[in-house]
Amino acid sequence: MSDDRDQYTFDDPRTRFPDISPEVQQQPEPGLQSEMTPVPDLGESTYRGTDRLRGRKALITGADSGIGAAVAIAYAREGADIALSYLPEEQKDAQHVIDEIEKAGRVAIALPGDITDPAHCRALVAAAVDGLGGLDAVVNVAGKQVWKEKIEEIDDEQFELTFKTNVFAPFWIIKAALPHLGPGSTIINTASLEAYKPAPDRLDYATTKGAINNFSKGLAQQLVGRGIRVNVVAPGPTWSVLQVTGGVNPESLPEFGSSESPMGRAAQPAELAPAYVFLASAESSFVVGDTLNVNGGMVTP
Ligand code: NAD
Ligand code: MG
């Protein structure tokens, strides 16, 4: 979208963002989105805040790039201060997001480190609470996705690291955060269409996404009694660096999203951010244990 438009501009969703056909490209994990062609759209020139998260304090994982970065920019423009979790190798992408947060007049606390380490997850929460002066939103967006055609090709290390990143880390982070979360606080986890429609070449990843959905719905029932709401966002095909770091078959990149989604194109990370804003904001006060599917029209249970 161009500079004179924002997320409220009334138009045709099919053509709102370009129908991209990315060239075959590959980077080692976790990759830098700034080196992708095209660079994913985080809503830098379009997201307009309207005070929906004024004064909130959010910890966002995977906040350097893709969906987590779009969420961080949107939250800052809605008035929240942000603690950003990402890997040290991603500093360049993270700096771009930190710059956007600071341009919005909000605080950005940079917390690089590996969330597959439980000690880091606990230190991450402590540093976020310290840097933000409290915490009232935990947004787990970080994820690992490695494409393998056959189960025999998934080694034990990949299987374990995918689970540690996608399932264990949110568990460790949420547990560490809970003592700091008062009534009104919100937790948002990130599943995927893969939770219900597992691609055969992403077995381990799809299984973690089913687990995240299930974990979140159980936890939501537990925590609503403390005034804390847990919900999930389940994205469909979204153009991000996850896809070009072994996330999907590289040969499939030119068709990424266009054949899979009835919308006929992939999403840009900017299109996911509003779902996370809604679920963090008090405006969704009666929405608990739900999964908001943002997938361009694919049928979900
Ligand atoms: P992305 O690569 O831009 O974001 C993933 C982030 O996870 C990385 O930036 C990294 O900071 C973080 N991460 C990974 N391993 C980590 C580790 N060990 N320690 C700390 N941080 C780590 O890609 P994205 O597509 O924006 O992914 C965000 C989330 O959206 C993921 O949970 C992904 O599964 C989910 N999702 C993406 C799509 C899609 O099509 N892109 C579809 C459905 C769900
Ligand atoms: Mg990244």
Automatic annotation (TrEMBL):
PROSITE patterns listed in its UniProt record: ADH_SHORT (PS00061)
Top-level taxon of the source organism: Bacteria
InterPro entries found in the cross-reference section: NAD(P)-bd_dom_sf (IPR036291), Sc_DH/Rdtase_CS (IPR020904), SDR_fam (IPR002347)
Comp. bias (Basic and acidic residues): 1-17
Pfam families xref list: adh_short_C2
Residue ranges, annotated region (Disordered): 1-50
Keyword Oxidoreductase among UniProt keywords: yes
Keywords: Oxidoreductase
Homology family: Belongs to the short-chain dehydrogenases/reductases (SDR) family.
Name listed for the protein in its UniProt record: SDR family oxidoreductase
Species of provenance: Frondihabitans cladoniiphilus
